[in-house]
Amino acid sequence: MIKLLPGLKPYTLSLFLVIIFLLAQSLAELYLPTLMSDLVDNGMMKGDSSYVWRFGSYMLLVALLSSLCSVAASYLSSIIGMGFGRDTRNLVFSQVENYSLHEFDQIGTASLINRTTNDITQVQTLLVIGLRFMVSAPIMCIGGIIMAYSKDKHLTLILVVVLPLMLAFIAILARYVVPLFRAMQSKLDKVNLVLRENLTGIRVIRAFNRLKKETVRFDKANRDLSDTAIRVNKIMASMHPLMMIFLNLTSIAIIWFGGLRIAQNSMQIGDMMAFIQYAMQIMFSIIMVTFMFVMIPRAEASAVRINQVLDVQPQILDPADAKAAGDKRGYVEFRDVSFAYPGAEKPAISNISFKVRPGEVTAIIGGTGSGKSTLVNLIPRFYDVVSGSVLVDGVDVREMRQQELRSKIGFVPQSPILFSGTIADNIRYGKLDATDLEVHHAAEIAQASEFIQAMKDGYQSVIAQGGTNLSGGQKQRLAMARALIRKPGIYVLDDSFSALDFKTDARLRAALKKEIVDSTLIIVAQRVSTIMDADQIIVLDEGRIAGIGKHKELLKNCQVYYEIVSSQLSQEEIA
Hints:
Strand content: 5-15%
Distance between the termini: 71 Å
Number of helices: 20
Number of strands: 12
Largest sheet: 6 strands, mixed
Strand order of the largest sheet: 6-9-10-3-11-12
Helix content: 55-70%
CATH class of the largest domain: Mainly Alpha
Mean pLDDT: 84
CATH superfamily of the largest domain: ABC transporter type 1, transmembrane domain
Shape: elongated
């Protein structure tokens, strides 16, 4: 919690005003019982109507002042809490945007979503409600004790007995509740994870008829969370009746012993009524503190999780002295590159070396798990190499600013990601200031214009989140158009032809050759027909290069490539 406090700096004035208003409200509420005491003893008991009207008016004014201060404090505390939540969400989002893929893998997408939403809401709620309680409760408690002592110091002994018992009860309560609230947040992560997996994988779940298994899996996570929540709420539910018992027993004791003192002429009736009011204020302030114990543990656990996101230092950072690539464009070189994922038993790729020049088409092919996607992910520096170096336009990618590096690359991932919005917006995502003519041209090159024009609203047709209302081939072509509109020096297409039919595949490759004459094209593919005409084919096998060359050369010299070709083409087609 303490680490997040600097986020309140922009609201210093509002915090100061909240404290002032709550102080004024507390003083007004502490003054009201004294006015009531004078009204009863000097007005009603003596039958002085003018005195009653005058002091009654004072009480109404003080009550009105207390109400106005309460409204103002609530309004300002809401501004502080909501503003703090907004700023913290911006801070967390900006931090996550700077993460490398390693940090995403480490924390998990489901947990990041939960920390950005639910956890920040917990802290935000604590601020909105807690600001009032944490300021007014101590004032009411201490002020009430002082005022009660001024009315009758002998009756104050009742509070000396009751208050330590209440505080001991609260301490015992906190000891059991705090760990449970912390556990609830991690269990909420689990529910969020299972739910997200079910929503994103609904097609696979239905295709393999695993609905019952996933329902059981979700029920288990959900039941675990609900059981913990019920246990917490049972403990907290016992707090209210026990507090009311303390409250009522204290009132009975004050009336009993106060009545004896009135009978002895040691105390006035108005003073006893005022003493009861002060006792109630003291005990209600303690109850307010108890309510804070419901909120503080959960908010504290959430704050720890938020700070974990903010404290993670991205492993991939811009260098202090970044180098510029100069006039070079479209050069890619791997120099003895090896890379292993964290915790992996062996490297994903080892000792990879090759060069790519402008105007060339380089294809990468290999079996499943041979390291094709891993290799191309090193070019935009999604991961850093373990050894060796990746050079773009003659400069090591670790010595370039990430923004400059990625502005040189048009990247189409293996699983195309589309955002909610129109088709034009998704294509224009690659170049925000692109004209309609550029958008249409990129779609034509990507062979997407035909199906776009067939849609009701054309380029203004709305795409659902993730492109769920499009086929796999349509998503791949739109992702291709998004990369083409940038007109970068290097195109990286990670298995972006897999969902296309052979005719569309051929047309797209022909259009790409005409479009990217001065650029480098790197294609990761499973189909041999997609890469047969490439200037350079790199064959990967278990993370190592099994062969480099053209199609015919590799057929003769590379057994791995020959086996891949044989599995897809007939002997007549190979010949």
